[in-house]
TrEMBL record, chain A:
Belongs to the ABC transporter superfamily. This is Teichoic acid transport system ATP-binding protein. PROSITE patterns: ABC_TRANSPORTER_1, ABC_TRANSPORTER_2. Coiled coil: none annotated. Gene3D superfamilies: P-loop containing nucleotide triphosphate hydrolases (3.40.50.300). InterPro entries: AAA+_ATPase, ABC_transporter-like_ATP-bd, ABC_transporter-like_CS, ABC_transpr_TagH-like, Bact_Polysacc_Export_ATP-bd, P-loop_NTPase. The keyword Nucleotide-binding applies. The keyword Transport applies. GO terms for molecular function: ABC-type transporter activity; ATP binding; ATP hydrolysis activity. Residues 36-254 form the ABC transporter domain. SUPFAM superfamilies: P-loop containing nucleoside triphosphate hydrolases. SMART domains: AAA.
From TrEMBL, chain B:
GO terms for biological process: lipopolysaccharide transport. Residues 64-291 form the ABC transmembrane type-2 domain. GO terms for cellular component: plasma membrane. It comes from the Bacteria. One of its GO terms (molecular function) is ABC-type transporter activity. Belongs to the ABC-2 integral membrane protein family. The keyword Transmembrane applies. Keywords: Cell inner membrane, Cell membrane, Membrane, Transmembrane, Transmembrane helix, Transport. Pfam families: ABC2_membrane. It is found in: Cell inner membrane; Cell membrane. It comes from Actinoplanes campanulatus. This is Transport permease protein.
Length: 256, 298
């Protein structure tokens, strides 16, 4: 019965993602060499295309928490960004219900501004109204725990330790109700106390709404939060199934 | 149960059909122009907060802080006063050349800074774009808003300079308001255009200083606008005098100076200003919206 009522929330259909990287000084950068490159119409070596995800297909259902695993650079974060609609798909398609939100540790906030101003700004950028922001602001700062050791929320973000700013970012993103929540390594940061709190929050979000995707290198947090796992390797899916089975295969692969 | 019936037929559907059945939309699909405008309106608080955050963070590590907003235009005017007022001793055929010059410089700089910050609005915020979901036009809009705020301060400084140099306060000063609004919309459109263009062709950033210099010399900022009438005639003069920045500068001079010789009658200037504002304002917005989904690619 429950199985029959599964409602898909994210569908990836043969999705390919290629992004361009502008890089300085990769090849010979003398004016003469650049001119030669233009004259011979050879490809600009300053712009490189990275084929990060190569034909990925899966269906995610409501109420699932899916872990994305894979070695560094296997395209996990890129895939999440495409699901969130932040990176365009080059071929194939990704369908999603509502607007998936990506919760990453590298969400850029303004380092010159104090934490509480960044909370306001981040909430507004997620589409909250000023009244909601005012209502949630203290709760967010409280949850992040940055004020545990003195009044840090009024200090510029650049004075924060990397753990503290990651916690603040997570707290901002987790303040909103999401249909599809994409979490990129966020749980791996922060101390044990914060990790427990954030895992509880993820479970809460999952219960309230839709689907959670989690990218993490921490085997423990994947096992704790996800019952399904997708193993991505070099842009393609190696395995997709229950966490235990996929984890076992992945561990066997990683030991080699 | 209808839900069960739907779910049972799910098996064997292609992903595309499955997505359609459950009402999923392709992520990265372009919203319609009215939808996009509505989204942008919902993000107005973000745009305002982002622009004031940028202002404070830009001036945050200076001692004087927000005082620089007033100080920058004053110093700017002082430089021109020293060169053109003291060293070169004014312009023979121009009454009150310093006020004339300052109006041109300030109005021109308004557009110039919007072009510069607009070009960076997308390329400089890729981290934010790749992390959060919001209408991308918020970024060039917030950049333009910073410059609009700066310009409003500059206009008050300008009024002070005009008064000091001996111009009377007249009813025509009220013209400043519509002129400022028209130029602001023109600049927003231009900033949006530059934001998308600059994100596609990074090389344009290297050319902007030269383009802006050329535009400066073509907008009668540093010399009387009547120079054009002495040198050009016919369609050539028409083309040069239709330059939008020249039009906005002339309107501002018309508002603040009692005896300014204008390039055209005020009526013609107003028509030109409105046409430029509508064309560039709407054109820039549509051009930016067309690229909405590609900005994350970098």
């Amino acid at each position: 019965m429950a199985d029959n009522e599964r409602v898909p929330t994210v569908i990836a259909d043969e999705a390919h993602i290629i992004y361009k990287v502008h890089q300085a000084g990769a090849s010979s950068s003398s004016p003469l060499a650049s001119f030669k490159r233009l004259a011979t119409r050879s490809k600009n070596s300053n712009i490189r295309e990275v084929h990060a995800v190569k034909g990925v297909s899966f269906v995610a259902y409501k109420g699932e928490a899916i872990g994305l695993i894979g070695t560094n650079g296997s395209g996990k974060s890129t895939l999440l960004r495409a699901v969130a609609g932040l990176l365009p798909v080059s071929r194939g398609a990704i369908y999603a219900s509502g607007q998936p939100s990506l919760l990453g540790v590298n969400a850029a906030l303004m380092n010159e501004l104090p934490g509480d101003r960044n909370v306001e700004l981040g909430c507004l950028a997620m589409g909250m109204s000023p009244a909601e922001v005012r209502a949630k602001k203290d709760e967010i700062i409280e949850f992040s725990g940055i004020n545990d050791k003195g009044d840090f929320s009024t200090l510029p973000m650049r004075t924060y330790s990397s753990g503290m700013s990651a916690r603040l970012r997570f707290s901002i993103a987790a303040a909103k109700q999401h249909d599809v929540l994409l979490i990129d390594e966020a749980l791996a940061t922060g101390d044990a106390k914060f990790r427990r709190r954030s895992e509880a929050r993820v479970r809460e979000l999952r219960a309230q709404a839709g689907t959670v995707f989690l990218v993490s290198h921490s085997e423990q947090s994947i096992r704790d939060t996800c019952e399904r796992c997708i193993w991505l390797e070099a842009g393609t899916i190696r395995a997709d199934g229950p966490t235990d089975e996929v984890m076992k295969e992945y561990e066997a692969f990683a030991r080699r | 149960m209808p839900e069960t019936a739907v779910a049972e037929t799910d098996a064997g559907l292609s992903p595309k059909e499955l997505a359609r059945r459950h009402g999923l939309s392709a992520s990265g699909r372009l919203p319609s122009l009215p939808d996009y405008t509505r989204q942008l309106w919902e993000y107005r608080h973000f745009i305002r907060a982002h622009s004031s955050a940028k202002m404070t963070s830009a001036l945050g590590n200076t001692k004087l802080g927000a005082v620089w907003q007033v100080l920058t235009p004053i110093i700017n005017a002082a430089v021109y006063y020293v060169i053109f007022g003291l060293v070169l001793g004014g312009h023979e055929e121009m009454p009150n050349f310093i006020a004339y010059l300052c109006i041109g410089v300030f109005v021109f700089q308004f557009t110039q800074s919007v072009v510069q910050t607009g070009t960076n609005a997308i390329t400089g915020n890729l981290g934010l774009i790749r992390a959060l979901h919001f209408p991308r036009a918020s970024l060039p809009l917030s950049a333009s808003l910073v410059e609009i705020r700066n310009f409003v301060v500059a206009v008050f400084v300008l009024m002070g300079i005009v008064l000091i140099t001996g111009e009377p306060i007249t009813v025509e000063w009220l013209i400043v308001v519509p002129a400022l609004i028209l130029q602001s919309f023109f600049n927003v459109g231009l900033g949006l255009f530059m934001a998308r263009y600059g994100s596609k062709v990074r090389d344009v950033k290297q050319l902007i200083p030269f383009i802006m210099r050329f535009w400066l010399y073509g907008s009668a900022v540093l010399y009387p606008v009547t120079k054009f009438q002495d040198l050009l005639s016919g369609w050539q003069l028409q083309v040069v005098e239709a330059n939008p920045l020249l039009v906005y500068i002339e309107l501002m001079r018309h508002a603040l100076l009692k005896e300014a010789t204008l390039a055209n009658s005020p009526a013609v200037l107003w028509i030109e200003a409105v046409v430029w504002t509508v064309v560039v304002g709407i054109g820039g917005f549509v051009y930016f919206w067309r690229g909405e989904k590609g900005y994350g690619r970098g």
